[in-house]
Amino acid sequence: MVFSAVVVFGVALITMNQFNRIYDEQFSRETREWLKVIVGTGYIDHPNKVKEAYGAEVIVFSSHNVLNATTLPEELSDEELANLTVNMKLREARKLIQESDADLVIQNVTVGGMPHKAIYYLLPHNRLYCLMRPMDKIAAAKRHATMLMLGITGLVVLLVAIISHFIGKNLATPIKSLVRFTKQVAEGDLDGQCEVKTHDEIGDLATAFNQMTRDLRNSRVELISAERLATAGKMAASFAHEIRNPLSSMRMVTQMLSRKQEPAKEKQQQSVAHILEEIERIDVIVKGFMNFARPASLERAPHNLNQALEAVLNLMEANLNHHQIALKKRFDTRLPAVSFDLDKIKQAFMNIVLNAMDAMPDGGSLTIVTLRDSDDVHIDVADTGGGIPPEDLNRLFEPFFTTKPQGTGLGLVNAKRVFEQHGGDIKFKSVVGSGTTVSLRMPLTNNKTQGVEEREKPH
What we know:
Blueprint: H1 2-41, H2 47-54, E1 57-61, E2 67-70, H3 78-87, H4 90-100, E3 104-111, E4 114-122, E5 128-134, H5 136-186, H6 201-259, H7 265-293, E6 301-303, H8 305-315, H9 317-322, E7 325-330, E8 338-340, H10 342-358, E9 364-372, E10 376-383, H11 390-393, H12 411-421, E11 425-431, E12 435-443, H13 450-456
Parallel strand pairs: 7-9
Antiparallel strand pairs: 1-2, 1-5, 3-4, 4-5, 6-8, 9-10, 10-12, 11-12
Helix pairs in contact: 1-5, 5-6, 6-7, 8-10, 10-12
């Protein structure tokens, strides 16, 4: 818009200057023709006849620029005569005639406050004949042309503004709207629709984009539904597989008890204890599946992380000693209080330690390290077991994946989810034959995890 207005005004100025130049040249040519006619007819010696015939003023100066004759209407005073000599630019005219080796020149002068076109003709004895044509009509014509040009320019600018508005409304605005909508779609928002404001190619493009968005939304819904069905099927199959063994064991024991008329009391107690163990095992499996399927919301409170870990290790001390695993602790005593769900963090940490114990069936060393950096606290759990093969390392957090005969494949998945709910994460570093180090991270503040917690809350 601004560029168009500048171009229009520039063209108008150039046009007006060109018009003024051409008009001035035409006026000068006519004045020269008049002078030729005046000289040819002998009217040059009759100033009053020239004025009567052409409506022009005639002034004759001597070689010393003294006024010899004039058709000006009234007598001139000495002051007016001096001003006339200056205004007529006599010295400049004589100089131009001498330098150009011509007998006439034309100049624009102002006499009596009016613009004139003056043509100077050199007479014998170095006298100067001046024919002056008033240019008031030319000035009026120039003003009229200028006003007309300005009017046309203003009209053109107005038309450009109207056309620009029309283009912006029917082209630029729909394109901007479509660009904004594409950004929303790129950010994952597939619920909106781009408003179709026109019925041209841009409107067709917006309509096609809306159809594509609807197709993407439907595909996403179908994909999520398929993933949920596949997950549900996998969970059901895994659940059935996991509880089949303890149920089979319980059935066998029950059948043995029912076949014996009077089983020994000691044998009976052992069978009951075995059944209770299998029931407890089923309960653990069911809880694992429930935690995976419906993660509960967090109940945060400020806690000392070292004390929480110490409590878990105290509970597992007898088990560690039984497996001949030496425990080494290097806790950073400068850790501040951290806001977290105490029960969930302790359960996640216990799952990590149990995995480390399973990796050292013949004993070994378990090292627990806590430390702090600027924004997070870190927990490293390092064992000296056999390590994890590279092909299994990338599947550790895959639901139902396990290398243990009695495992459910959900312990690490639930542990990872708990730390992610707290805004942290879990990473594994393992060397086959040397051991594994699990690095747990949790932020000191929970501001950046608030949105995660809200999404994880059950409805």
